[in-house]
Structures are given as structure tokens and as C-alpha cells.
Amino acid sequence: MDFSRQTLPTILCCMCGTPIPSNPSNMCGMCLRTQVDITEGITKQLTVQYCKSCGSYLTPPTQWVFIEPESKELLAFCLKRIRGLNKVRLIDASFVWTEPHSKRLKVKLTIQKEVFTGTILQQSFLVEYVLNTYQCDKCTKAQTPHTWVAVAQVRQKVPHKRTFYYLEQLLLRHSAHLQPTSMKELPDGLDFYFNTRSHAQKLVDFLQQVIPITVKTGKKLISQDDSNNTYNYKYTFSVEIAPVCREDLICLPPKLRTSLGNVSPIVLCFKVSNVLHLVDTFTGATYEINKEIYARGPFTGIANSRQLVSFIVLDISHVRTSNSNNFFSPFLMVDVQIARLADFGTNDITFQVRSHLGKILKVGDTVLGYEVSSLNFNNSDFNTLNLNRQNIPDIVLVKKERPSKKDRIWKLKRLETEKEEEEGSARSKKEVAEKEREQQDYQHFLDDLEADRDYRSGINLYPDQESIQRKQRRREEMETETDEDDPDAVKLEELLSEMTIQDTEMGEQDDQ
């Protein structure tokens, strides 16, 4: 007899009389569900506290945790709130779509439970969560004025804001803008307000890694309780950025020139990171000035990028040097014959200068430079050089001039800051003039990013879909490439997809 082919006998359901295979309950599945409810004792409606400002949920008793909508973390948070779920076997759980304004969350659960010996019943049901809108402690403190604990005041004494535009992109790239409760924009810098001193110190440490700064700290006693020996302070971090920017012309102090090996007194700043990168435009030698060296002999730029003059390249001749690292160096020394672009075609005045831009210049290019002989400098070190009749170049070439692009395929994100409002009758005129200067500085900053691959390598660029579509339509109409073959231009491969990412701060304790 083959027992493997035996089947259960067929019986009639004791409730409805339907023929079913034999089971201990003697009931069909439909009748069994009507008689036995395995969801009994499981909570089907709950209330959770939700902060609308930051999207955090209250984890009793006092902890607020940010959770992405309809994420697996939010599903786990919801399941932990259900009572009685440990008495059954959870098979599946998923969110059910609800209107965003309904303030409801619905989770569909599928569970199993043994109701009789050898009889397992499976059932699906909905659990509804009512979102009660509250305000977490962090948002409450942020919305209340004058409740900050620490402030970082970042300043730079230069006539433009290009350094702060670049610093803004670094903060966005490294998510350093998430901790301040508010940011205030001032004519000469930014103020960052924090709820804790440690967060302000963390920002200062970040700034020390990316730009040359000097820091001074202070604190002010707000209140004290002698009985408990507790004190309430407000902390201030005064951050001063070195007043030297890219493309600034610099006259080095005599002591600093001697410590660097009797370098040329007139140098050019071509890069700013946590150190200042300088280049001697006559020899091509480069130098790095860290904050310790800068503190021993501080200096400022004697001319900035607003004083650049356009020249046209007439002839180029290479210069033989003894430097064996010319292949790896970004500079190549050449003798360049140039003429002012404003005078080109009206007179025969030309200049013969030595430049470090031999790798990028060609005959017919337009180049920007400082006409040192026609500028007035309010600098004691430069005046001393002039009196001693030391070798001072008449013209210092800075960079190749490229046409400004209005329709770019990329864009940048910006920080949300509060601007300081001024009072007085001349406020409107001053605001208009300052706004025009800021727009010009920002346009020059975008042009520098477009022209310098190394300069934009440390920030995030995002695609401008409207501009990309316009360029594609123009190409289809003209049936040719409209972009110039510029190796330094921003390519689509450099752009990041524009995603919304919410960072959370984990494991950080507030200062007491």
C-alpha cells in the first residue's frame, strides 16, 4: 500500500456545509475567519507626535528623530509602536498611500497565528496613525529670537565677496550648513548662529582646513545660579580670513622674502586653500604660505581683479630655463609681446613682458593683467621698493580672458541667509548699488569656475535642464556643434544629479 499518495478525507463544514478537506476545526477558511479574529488585542489606531518644521518624530520620552517619509526606518518606527504584535507572526508590512494633508499614516499588515492544533490562520488588516503636529525642542529654540548659544563671525577685509561665494559652495558640498540655526549675511562677511558651542567649534575647524584664517574666541556671562553652581554663557568665535584672494597682486614684506630665500618682491596669488599659493611671474617659481608663516609676516594684496586690464597677444617666444619639472608644472615661462586692447589699432605702443602663462597663451588671445606702472599703491613695502629703484615689472599678466557665458548648462545651489537691513533715507540707493556689485562679483565667480577646472573640482555643479534643452534645440536647428572646443569648459560628466538629501546628526550631545 502506497501511503505517500494518501489524501485527507473530505468532510462538510460544520457552519456552511461546504465540502472541505478534514481539519481539526471542522470549518472552512471563510467560516473560520468569521468565528476567530487573530487581530484581537493588536492596536489598530495610534497617535504619534510629528514636527512639521524638520520632519522629526518623537521617540518617547524626549528624543526627536528625523525619518524620511515612507522609508524602512519609518516603517520600523511605526511597527514598534503597535502593541500585541509580539503574539503573532508578522508576514508582511507596507505603507498605504494617504493624502499628504490628511495627517494620517496607514500601514497594511499581514499576520499568521495558530488558532487550533495544526490550523494556521492568515489575515491582513490596516493600522492607522494620527499625526499630531508638535514642535521639537531644536525648532522651538531656533524660532525664538536671541536664544543662540554660540556665534561664528566670519569676516574678510576685501572689496568683493568671491571668497564667500566659494566658501558657500564648500559648506554645501560638505553639509556644514545643516548645524547652524540661522545665517546672517553682512557686507563684509557672514554670521553663523548655533545652539551649542561644539557645533560652532566644528565649523571653525572645518574653515581651518579649507581657507587660511585666524581665530579669536570670547564668552559673555548671561546668568548664573550660585546654589547649583551653574553658569550660562554665550560664546563668540571671531574668524578673520586672510585678506588675499585669487589673482591678487602681492608685494611681500622684506623679512618674509628673506625667510623664503630672497624671492622676488612682486608675486601673484594663483590659488587659495588652507595655504596661500604664490607664483613669481618672472621665474615661474611657486611658494606656499601657511598660516604660521603668514602670521610672522602678514601682507595684503596691493591690487585685485577689479583692476585688471585687457591686452592682446602679438607674439610669443619661449624661454629656456634650468627647471627640469616644466612638464609637471602648471606654468611655462615665455616672453610675450602685447598691446593694450583699448589702444589696438589706434597707436603702435607695445610691451615686452615675461609671463608664466606659456601653456595656455596663443598669438591673438586676449589676456588680463595688471599695469603696475600706471597704478597707485598705498603700500609701504611697495613704496620702499620704488624708492630703492628695485626691479619692478611694468605689467604682470594674470590669466587668459574668456568670453562670459550667460547660458550655462550648469548651476549652483545657494544658502538661505538673512540680510542685514539698514535704516535711513539713502537705504534704497545703497542697496541698489550693493546689489549690482554683488551680481557682478557673482558673475565673475561663475566665469572663474567655467574657465578653471582645478578651481571647480572642490564644489558640486548641478545640471540646468532648461539651458541644456535650449542648446540641444539650437544644435538641431543649425545641425552643427555650437560649443567651442574648450578643454576647460564644464562637461555634462562633471555635473551631479539634483537629488534632495536630508542629512541627520547622530550621536551628538548638546553642551550643558
SSE blueprint:
Blueprint: E1 10-12, E2 19-21, H1 29-35, E3 45-51, E4 56-59, E5 63-66, H2 72-80, E6 89-96, E7 104-116, E8 119-134, H3 137-143, E9 150-155, H4 162-173, E10 182-186, E11 189-194, H5 197-210, E12 213-225, E13 230-241, E14 249-251, H6 254-259, E15 266-272, E16 276-279, E17 286-289, H7 291-296, E18 301-303, E19 309-318, E20 334-340, E21 351-355, E22 366-371, H8 380-387, E23 395-400, E24 410-411, E25 418-419, H9 427-451, H10 453-456, E26 462-463, H11 465-478
Parallel strand pairs: 3-8, 9-13, 10-25
Antiparallel strand pairs: 1-2, 3-4, 4-5, 6-7, 7-8, 9-11, 10-11, 12-13, 14-15, 14-18, 15-16, 16-17, 19-20, 19-22, 20-21, 22-23, 24-26
In short:
With 512 residues, this protein is of the alpha+beta class. The chain has helices spanning 29-35, 72-80, 137-143, 162-173, 197-210, 254-259, 291-296, 380-387, 427-451, 453-456, 465-478; strands at residues 10-12, 19-21, 45-51, 56-59, 63-66, 89-96, 104-116, 119-134, 150-155, 182-186, 189-194, 213-225, 230-241, 249-251, 266-272, 276-279, 286-289, 301-303, 309-318, 334-340, 351-355, 366-371, 395-400, 410-411, 418-419, 462-463.
